[in-house]
Amino acid sequence: MFKKYGLNRLSLQLMELLWSMDKPLSYEEIITLVKSKWGKNWKTRKLKSCLVDLQKAGAIIIDETIAIHIYCAACTKGEFIDNWKKEQIKNYLNEPSRLYGIFPTTKKMSKEDIEELRKLL
User: Fold this and answer.
1) Is residue 4 helix, strand or coil?
2) Residue 60, exposed/middle/buried by CB under 10 A (0-12, 13-18, 19+)?
3) What integer pLDDT is reported at residue 121 of this predicted model?
């Protein structure tokens, strides 16, 4: 199963969409953008379930105070990735040999990552 930053493919696509927008989106806007950008026709139940899961994970904010719910990212992509890395470091502290798996897209850890890891250890 595909996972990046702890997100499955659908969740990552939705987050990429929300991160790329400069305003919150309604559910209908999300459906329209998904169809136009990726040619996807996701089932309503699957998409709504994914949005609720992202909300529970703290990745998105859903404004349900109005009739048309509004969705937006809870943080920037960079903040989300940094939080994910920190969580991975905490999870792997008992298994230091697996720490390299946290940074699969880079050959080297950044100075900031090294300093953060030193603080945690």
Assistant:
1) strand
2) buried
3) 62
